[in-house]
Amino acid sequence: MDWLELKPEGLFCVPGAFYIDPLQPVAHAVITHGHSDHARPGHQHVTATPETLSIMRLRMGEDRAGESQQALEYGEVISVGAVRLWLAPAGHVLGSAQIVMEYQGQRAVVSGDYKRAPDPTCTPFEVVPCDLFVTEATFGLPVFRLPDPAHEIGKLLHDVRLFPERTHVVGCYALGKCQRLIALLRNAGYHEPLWLHGALLPMCSLYEGFGIQLGELKSATAAKKGEMRGGIVLAPPSAIADRWARRLPDPVVCLASGWMHVRQRAKARGVELPMVISDHADWDALLDTCQATGAKEIWVTHGREEALIHALGKLGIRGCSLRLIGYEEDDEQAEEDAMA
Amino acid sequence: MIEFATLLERLAFTPSRNMKLALLKEYFTMAPDPDRGYALAAMAGSLSFAAAKPAMLRALAMERIDPELFAWSYDYVGDLAETVALIWQPESETHKSEAAPGLAEVVHTLDRLPKADVPDVLRRWLDACDASSRYALLKLITGSLRVGASARLAKTALAELASVAPDDIEEVWHGLKAPYGALFAWIEGKGPKPDAKDAPVFRPPMLAQPLENVDLAAFDPAEWRAEWKWDGIRVQLVSAPQGERVYTRTAEDIGKAFPDVLATMQDLGSRVVLDGELLVVRNDVVASFADLQQRLNRKSPTASMLRDLPAGIRLYDILFEDGEDLRPLPFDIRRQRLESWFARLNPPRMVLSDLIAFRNFEDLAKLRDSARSEGIEGLMLKKADSPYLPGRPRGPWWKWKREPLTVDAVVMYAQRGHGKRSSFYSDYTFGLWRTTDGKRELVPIGKAYSGFTDEELKFLDKWIRDHTTKRFGPVREVAHGLVLEIAFDAAQYSKRHKSGVALRFPRVARIRTDKPAEEADTLEAFIHAFL
Question: Its Enzyme Commission number (chain A) (predicted)?
């Protein structure tokens, strides 16, 4: 498809003259979701879902989240130049969207990050039939067949019951993972107050503003040490292995991430209770989704693209690698590096 | 298999001893017989199969997955069993409904399974298991199962469940066999205490307390006996009708590594339990601990090792003779029994630990400090009337270590600790100055992670953070600006560090903020003084 181009700033839609998740400030950016490697500050005009725009304003401040902002509900169609454009849910985090573009009878879908597993905190992924599908490949290896998140939450709650005198601290990314964990805990019948690192609270309030109930949340930073004993604390991964965590009584270090599926990665992080919970599509979901779109051509943006392209080839689908430098394969690592 | 796999996974990630204990107790309570017995055997290191080789796992995986995808996956995961466990996809939904095999079923099947049938059975099991159980199964079947809990810890968990002392379990342990039905029956109050009878069981040893904050002037020299404390491995030699054993003081059976000692015991044919120090003794001279380490590192020694690094035992005590329990007798009487046994049999490879004559403790202290011979750590003081009590009772036995050796070294790297210390940089690599081709540089000689107080740890942690120059994952390189006085028991040549030397039991004695890094010790002076 020759009307989507890869430029140094990012993926460019020629007939619409806009970039998708650009890495540098541009005149017109269409943003898939609010994670900092996709939504960057300083663009002139920004098009995204109301949720994503709201997240961008919270994270980068009103003045840096785009000089003008255009909110698009899922399914609301607009014309940008010669392109028909609309957003479809991606199921990654609140407000996450696939960018659907039509031009001269061809349809291209840029999925951004996405997952197929159910998530009570965001609208589920919608398959949009298309000619070109642009996919991520974070977990693009057949060893990544991730377990049911309810099972992983069960592991945590079992541990909390077994060690009531300790404090379970779960490392999780501030946008998406944190709120999903809370919702999963509530669905599993855990209704105690949850203790949150200060960096996580504003995003939770934002989610609640969009009608997502998270139950009682308390500030771990303001808590007295003994208060949190026996409870569950959520914090950014970088805070857990650092001085902030010294306020926690006898902590058990847990980390919620798809990478926890591989022992060595969990070991290297010093995690005591790995929880395999991811907001990305696992191997089966990647293959199923690529097939379900009916696309004849698949572009793979970031992750382990060679294995996915190989497997797609076996299914008769042409894939090619679109190495976009700058999109992190690992949210937690990105955040840790950002704070370092 | 699922419960066992879950336990394995949890133990692998849990550094805390107390949590491991709780996990073990939960497992032993919940898991059925005989599964839990085989799990116990796995912890004791006695559950090992070589039913499948890596090539077989690979071939099985290839039946289900594209070779290139497998290669990329293996490359990423880095462990064959884990790759196969994660990548394996049950052939059809019908297989998934089949129950996963229990641990006992796996063990019993493997015990009598012809090699040719292994792939078929394994394929069926893999189809029925989840990823975590597949991992445990593949590790078990290839003989590479590692359990994150020692046999001693498992016994402690059982003892707590039974409200008995771990040593009570220890005393019957080596007479028992997997799946330990009698043991579980006993700890659950459903059966009698197992009878060890003629089995070569381990007897928990008597250990000494360090002589600290004790007023020697209050001791009557006539009531005390003194022996050299040797830098070897404390062992228990057991000879019983059902066989001979060499145990470490933590009940590990190391007989396979010391066939020379076992053979000596067999030849003697005397039914005894002896307490002694395992050493390498060449031409009547005790060799360094490094030499002994070479023997300890080998599961079974080569012929040349047996020739060049012959094992010897320095005898301290006798616990049993011909079925008679000597432990309640006073030390002096046991010593007489040991001496007469020794004189009667004149056992090869063995010597008696010398009793050191002394008039008063001042003389003894002088003697202690003058002893610089290799292999001597200090002195042991034993009360003449002390019975042999398992554990570390305070009072009857003291270890009186030589003053440690010390060196002033510069901190080079620091690493985060584990568990409670995971937010602190608590492991320090330190080095000494070396001049090569006119260039002065630091070369590492060791690593220490103890010896400091909580306050000092806070200081060190902050210092590390404030002086970091580079990061490599969990490790930080720091500016060469902090001197630590490192205490250690001995120095030896070693290939472990760039400096070519290594320390035995290094710990931080003092933080020398008063000393500029340039004035820390040189490697040359260190080698001259200690090697």
Answer: 3.1.-.-
Q: Is residue B229 annotated as part of the catalytic site, yes or no?
A: yes
Closest CA to B121 of B137, B136, B135: B137
Mapping DSSP to helix (H, G, I), strand (E, B) and coil, where does residue B7 land? Answer: helix
E strand segments, B347-390: 350-352, 376-383
Residue numbers in B near A144 (CB within 8 A): 86
Among B20, B155, B229, B382, the active-site one is B229
Average pLDDT value for residue range A161-175: 94
pLDDT in tens, B157-213: 999 999 998 888 988 888 898 999 999 999 999 999 998 778 899 999 999 998 887
Count CA atoms within 13 Å of residue A328 on its CB side. 14
Q: Among partner residues B66, B87, B473, which is closest to A143 by beta-carbon distance?
A: B87
Neighbouring-strand partners of residue B399:
B210, B380
Q: What ipTM, to 2 d.p.? A: 0.92
Q: Which domains does chain A have, with CATH numbers?
A: 4-143+279-330 (3.60.15.10), 149-275 (3.40.50)
Task: Determine the average pLDDT of the residues in B488-505.
Answer: 87
- Report the range out of A122-136, A291-305, B138-152 with the highest average pLDDT: A122-136
CA torsion B170-B175-B177-B182 (nearest 10°) is -80
Q: Which of B19, B69, B423 sits opposite A243 (nearest CB)?
A: B423
Q: CA triplet A223, A229, A235: central angle to 5 degrees?
A: 60
The order of strands in the sheet holding A28-30 is: A4-7, A10-13, A18-20, A28-30, A45-48, A68-71
CA distance A134 to A305: 12
Q: Is A148 on the interface with B (CB under 8 A)?
A: no
Please report the domains of chain B, with CATH numbers, ordered by start residue.
209-401 (3.30.470.30), 405-530 (2.40.50.140)
B79 neighbourhood in chain A, CB within 8 Å: 263-264
* Phi, psi at B399, each rounded to 5°: -105, 130
Mean pLDDT calculated for residue range B318-343: 96
Subunit contact A306:B131, Cβ cutoff 8 A: no
Give, for B266, the enclosing helix (H) or strand (E).
Answer: helix B259-268
Phi, psi of B70 (to 5 degrees): -65, -45
Q: What pLDDT digit, counting tens, does each position of B115-129 carry?
A: 899 999 999 999 999
**Inter-chain CB pairs, A–B, below 8 Å:** 79
